[in-house]
Every structure is written in C-alpha cells, then in structure tokens.
Design a protein that fits this description.
MetI-like fold, 3 domains, 2 strands, extended, transmembrane, membrane, Putative spermidine/putrescine transport system permease protein, MetI-like
C-alpha cells in the first residue's frame, strides 16, 4: 500500500490545467491566423485597396483644395452672388502664382475644364498677366478683371466654387445623365448630352443576350457530357476547355478574320448558294455576340456539368417507367435538379460579360461599345479619373446587386428543399 501510494504522481491543480488548455487553444488560433494571413493580405492589396480607391475617386474633389486651400476655403464661404470679396481675390492671385510649382496648375486646370473647357486657357492668360510677386495691389478685383473680363462675371467664380468642396457628386450624377441645376436640384441633362443611361442599357442587353445564348448552347452540351461514357466525355471536355489555352486577343482576332466580308463564314455561305453577296457579320452586334459567346460558353458548361454529373439517371427512368412521357420526365424530374447549376452558370457568365472591353472594342461597332469602353476612355485618353471611377462604381453596384439576388434565390431554394 505504501509503495503504491508513493508511485502515484501527484494530481495537477485544476487551475493549471485550464491555463494549459487556454494556451493550447490560443496557439491553435494563432496558427490558423498565420495560415490565413498571407491570403487575407493578398486580397486586401489586390482587391480591397483598388476597389476602395476607385470608390473614393468617384467622389474625390480635392484638386482645388490641395493646390489653392485659401481660395477654396474663401469660395465655400461666399454666398454666390456678385463677386467674391477682396480677400478671396488676393488669395486666388497669390496661390495661382504659386501653383506653377509641383504641377498644381495642371491639376486644377484639368479639373476646372470639366466644368467649362475655357478655364485652362483663362488660368494661363491670367498667370501671364499677374503683377510681379513684390508689387502691391490695392484692388485685386480690378486687376484681375483688367487681365481678363471673365473674372468680372459671377458665373466664372461659381464654376470655381463648385470645385472647392473636398467631395462632389458630380461624377456619379454625370454617369447617370444627371446634373445639378442652378438652384442645386438634381435634374436630367439636355437630351443631346444624354449618353450613359443608353450605354448601361446596352451593356445589360448585350450581357443578357450572351448569357441566354450560352445557356441555350451550354445546357444540351453539358447534358451530353454528363450522360456519355467517361472516355468520350473526357475527350469532349478537352474540346470545351481548349479556348482557355488560347489568348483572348487571339480568339477575338480570329473571329474578325472568320466574319469579315472575305472571311470563311461569308465565303462558305456564298459557295452553298445561301447568299449572293457578303453579309456584314463583324463590327456590329452580330460579331460581338459570336465572339463573346465563344469565349464565355465554357463558363456556362462547367457549372452545369458539375451539377448534372451528380444527378442519378434512375430518377428519370423511374418517371418513364411510371408512365410519364420521356420529355415530361426530363422537364419535370431532371431539369429542376439542375437549377443550381443554371443559376451559377448564368450569374457567372452575366457578371463576366458586364465588364467585357477588348471583344466589343475590336469586333463591335460604335453602337456596340459597353461601359468598360468608356471607363478605359476616361482613364487612358482624357485622364478623367473621376468619371472612370464613377462608371466603374455603378457597374460594381449592379454586379453586387445581381449577386445578392442570386444568393437569395439559392438560399430560398435550399429552404424549400428542407
């Protein structure tokens, strides 16, 4: 008894055991965070920061405030009637003279030109006509008006006042063919200046049309791949995936060659006697649909195939054995089980089609350009990052709304099944 009691190790206190368990749990969580941290950091750098920067640029209006802070502050306090006071005029002249350093003059000139195309030239003429830095001026209103009569007009200063606040809704409103009137109320732009609502509508129509065509072609193809023997199905799947191994630009250029007036498509139709003269199949909406469907069709087939592969053929055979017509058995038994694949394929293709740029730009005509074309135009040609960011932000919002609708429909269907 004494030997047995001596050989038994003393019991550890319950407090120490709890502390060790908490320490082990903490280490487990730290290891999990360490494993996820690189991916999270990558997502923040590659996705969150660029998207956040884009959203900010769509409302950023800091050009004047960063180059001419005193002028911006004075104009925000101005009531918009008559002309700004002498202090505002003096601050404007002094800061305009200093704006040549660091490229500030170019930034505010470009921003003011969005309000009226004559501002840049007005600033340059005024800068050349300003008195020397040490010269004393008692009446800056008269001095600026003598340099250019535009400084004696209230409208000139109102245009600059609109650029004084650090943020603006100008770009977002312009992206929807809206603007603020003289009374500050939101109104539609003139009929001749309306563009972007039609562009967004065109983008939706093209993306929707491409999605429907991909669904009509991809559903029977996925069904064929899911029901064929494995050897044949794998061979056909390679053909489906083959476009992924070719550059997007190469595929688009190939469609231009195939669909042009002397291309293979027109020559074949003429050789068969179906047409007498070449059809216009490229640089229009037809060419856009051909090229985009070819590129996006695999993104429809793959989700459908993954769902169809898991559907047992015994359900359909059981319905037929119970007296149902084969088509009725297919439509009422098989198709409902593919809804998740249809939903995933359509939302994937539609969202990808919304942002297409290269294919419509090369294969389409002027009336077939989508929102992404104008984003690239404002980014690369006019350097109007505000308009580019506003158009991109609206497209992002539309994409998120579509995803939310898809998510809600899928969740509702899962609840119904339960």
């Amino acid at each position: 008894m004494t030997r047995s009691a001596a050989s038994t190790p003393p019991a550890r206190p319950a407090g120490n055991l709890r502390a060790q368990l908490r320490r082990a749990e903490r280490m487990r969580k730290l290891r999990a965070v360490a494993l996820v941290a690189p991916l999270a950091l990558f997502l923040v750098i590659v996705f969150v920061v660029p998207i956040g920067s884009m959203l900010w640029r769509s409302v950023d209006n800091s050009e004047l405030a960063s180059v001419m802070p005193q002028t911006a502050a004075a104009l925000q306090q101005w009531d918009g009637t008559g002309l700004p006071d002498e202090a505002a005029m003096a601050a404007f002249a002094a800061e305009l003279r200093d704006s040549r350093r660091g490229g500030g003059l170019g930034r505010i000139g470009r921003r003011l030109n969005y309000e009226d195309t004559g501002y840049r030239g007005l600033l340059m003429r005024t800068l050349r006509g300003l008195p020397a830095a040490g010269e004393s001026i008692d009446d800056w209103t008269t001095a600026l008006t003598e340099i250019d009569a535009a400084w004696g007009e209230t409208a000139t200063w109102l245009g600059i006042q609109r650029t004084a606040p650090p943020t603006t809704d100008r770009y977002m409103l312009a992206s929807l063919d809206l603007e603020r009137g003289a009374d500050g109320e939101i109104q539609r732009v003139d009929a001749g200046d309306r563009l972007y609502q039609a562009v967004f509508q065109r983008t939706m129509v093209i993306a929707g049309g491409v999605t429907l065509i991909c669904l009509a072609l991809g559903f029977p193809l996925a069904y064929l791949l899911a029901t064929l023997p494995a050897k044949t199905s794998n061979l056909l799947m390679i053909l489906v995936l083959l476009p992924f191994w070719t550059s997007l630009l190469v595929r688009t250029a190939a469609w231009i060659i195939l669909l042009q007036s002397n291309g293979l498509a027109n020559q074949s139709l003429m050789a068969l006697g179906l047409i007498e003269s070449p059809l216009q199949l490229v640089f229009n909406r037809i060419g856009v649909f051909f090229a985009m469907v070819h590129i996006l069709l695999p993104f429809m087939v793959l989700p459908l195939y993954s769902v169809m592969k898991g559907i047992s053929p015994s359900y359909q055979r059981a319905a037929v054995s119970l007296g149902a017509h084969p088509f009725a058995a297919f439509w009422q038994v098989y198709v409902p089980q593919t809804v998740s694949g249809v939903a995933a394929g359509t939302i994937l293709v539609f969202i990808m089609a919304l942002g297409y740029y290269i294919t419509p730009a090369l294969v389409g005509g002027p009336a077939d350009q989508m929102v992404s074309y104008y984003v690239a135009y404002y980014t690369n040609t006019t350097n109007n990052w505000g308009m580019a960011a506003a158009l991109g932000s609206i497209l992002l919002v539309v994409t998120l709304l579509l995803y939310l609708v898809y998510h809600r429909l899928v969740n509702r269907r899962q609840l119904i099944r339960r």
